[in-house]
Amino acid sequence: MKRLLLLFMLIALMQETKAQFGLGGGGQKVTITGRITALIADSATRTPIDYATVSLIRVKDNKSVNGAVTDAKGKVVLQNVAPDQYKLSIGFMGYRNKTVLLKTSQEKPDLNAGTIYISGTQSDLKEVAIVGKTPMIETKIDKVVYNAEQDVTTAGGNASDVMRKVPMVSVDIDGNPTLRGSAVRVLINGKPSGTMSNSVSDALKMIPAEEIKSIEVITSPSAKYDAEGAGGIINIITKKKTAQGINGNAALSAGTRQNNGNFSLNAKNGRLGISSNFGGQYAIPQDTKVVLLNDNYTSNTSLLQDGYTRAKRYGYNGSIGLDYDINGYNSLSTNIKYNDFSTGSDGSVGVINRIRDSTSYYSRLSDNNVSFKNLDWSADYRRTSKKEGEEFSISGQASFGRNTTDFSTYNAFPDGVNTLPVNGDNTGKNNEYTLQTDYTYPFNKSVILETGLKGIFRTIKSTYQSSDQDFDYNQDVGAAYGVLSFKLAKTIDVKGGLRAEYTDISGVSGSDLNFNNDYFNLFPSAIISKKMKGNSTLKLSYNRRMQRPSLNFLNPFLNRTDPQNQSQGNPGLSPELTDLVELGYSTFIKGSVINASIFYRSTMDVIESIYLPDQKLTTYSNVGNNKSYGANVFGSYNPLPKWTLMGNFSVSTYNVKNAQTGASTGNYANYSIFARSAIAFKGGWNTEIFGVYNGTRRTFQGTAGAMAFYGGAFKKDIMKKTATVGINVLNPFNRDLHIRTENSGTTFLQTTNIYYPLRSFGVNFSYKFGKVTFSQPKKKKGVNNDDLKQDEGSGGMGGGVQPKQ
């Protein structure tokens, strides 16, 4: 009943907004107008020209009716153009003026004029030097942007590899990201994926690095975003572009560790655009050595396991999208994406089990397989008006996920006797439906209102075939927000907002555990930005956020792949609540960039994995409250025009206290360091080296070991810059990455030493075909479900879970 009421409220409010905004109907006649787009470039260098002046002049009366300047990529878009004959006049200092005749009609109101080349005057040609390369890192008022397509070392990797080089982001050995030491939500093109709901690390490994355009890091999201993600939001932008005609890209990489293939094909004719992508990957199986020690002081027992697991990983994904501009004010888009991913491991472990004065020796053999399939379908409608900046959108998304886990393990003793195998089989279904509407209204150029409504309906069902039990879980979320942006003074910008969310949870686990819970929360946010002398900006922000536990945290399925070190979710978890205050400063000095920030973060009901020695079990719990202080410094410097040095340092304190037990970890510091050097040479040669170090991370029961990555790459442009070929190396001087984790208490000690095969060598090739005068697609609102707590600790659910390659 609550779910139906929530849906009816959303529909009623959307109808009211639609009526107020005048979205057609009622016999109103819609005037068909279109738009004219063009790309202005230098005739000699073929380089786009930014800030060129473009005027649209009606032929019949020689009157100027529209105009604009080109953006940083040389693109210009003239909106709301009535059908007629026009002259397009282009002018720029140091170039000859040029006029092009154009015509639009009722049948074809939109016109892409393509690339228009203008030539420089004779006296200026020798003096002009144009640099059009996008910087690796961009700092904006509310986010930091890492332009991955400018990084030559990412080829042949996946999104986890790229994420390790993003400022403020740390990635553990499994591929789970954290932002300044706290959990984060990951979006793709501003939208969630059902794959993320189950495993962020697996979802990131399914995205080839060649498909990524940039990664946005949002540390202080406004109330417009879902309130989840204690550390903030990471948004992966893929290389989706549109151009009249057909274009695409093919990329292949092969190496000693990872093999990827990715193919994209895009087509646009008039108002209709179609984009598609298909990718696959295969990781060559390698042995991971694991040494585990469990000491239980109460029972006077000790268990030592020393062996290996051989991991395998393979999968593919595909997507197809359609965009249609009804006219200059209305547009539709839809997208379908499918993922099929499998991973698993088999291994042999030698076990020494000591119980008081008795010692036994045996081998344990195991086989573990996991598969995940997910289908995401989304549809968006967007309407603008003659008032610049006014926009209304309705977005919907349906996600259907299915994952299976099965394992088998048995013990083999020296006398030839084998125990009966322990088997487990779990099938999970995760269905999610989202409906969202957003409206933006600019009162003037300085005051902008954003508001919207959203409903999320989740149904999770997990079946344990070995015990014939089910875990059924329903979660419904209703939300509304309002954000107001305005100028407090000429150099001071303010953005403030409030988000309200209602959550209703119900479920049953087995035959003896029923639970119901609902809660209402308010999430305020505010940001004040002041522009200072010398291209410097000072920013102060505050927001409150929430982190709900995801399926793998809640699922009570008992994984007994290692009977001496089992794992299980906890359906009784409460969400985390976080308050964050941040002061940031950024400046640009002669091409160099400095971005620094300090922050205070208070988190209630922190969710972490814990080890229960008497039950030989790793599970999840709300371990306590954490009050954390931190800082981040990022810098970029060019000693020479084509030589870039870059570095990032992040540190945050960790101090969790449990109010019920009085237990406290004390105050510790978690930190990470990143450094990069890149040089471009004549002839299309590029080279780069980098290094990443994540220090030992404190947890409630112990520590997660330090990690270091380093590598380099060469890349060469070939075939008139339509293709590239390169080589990459990662940790060339060390085959294994050694990570030590430790959990301890008054009655136990657990240590895990993992030797993960990281060294790799690879070659890669990429080829672009079709038109290269791209224009960026119209921005779509889409769906943002940035709300579920994911596992960010190394080792997954604890010492007994082996890392994924």
What does this 3D model show about the protein?
This protein has 805 residues and is mainly β. The protein has two domains: 86 residues, Immunoglobulins (Immunoglobulin-like), CATH 2.60.40; 545 residues, Beta Barrel (Maltoporin, Chain A). The protein is built from five helices and 43 strands. The chain has a 22-stranded antiparallel barrel. A five-stranded mixed sheet has the order 8-9-13-14-12, with no helix packed on it. A four-stranded antiparallel sheet has the order 3-2-5-6, with no helix packed on it. The longest helix is centred in the first third of the chain and has 20 residues. It is globular, with a radius of gyration of 28 Å. The C terminus is likely disordered. Belongs to the TonB-dependent receptor family. One of its GO terms (cellular component) is cell outer membrane. It holds the Pfam family CarboxypepD_reg.
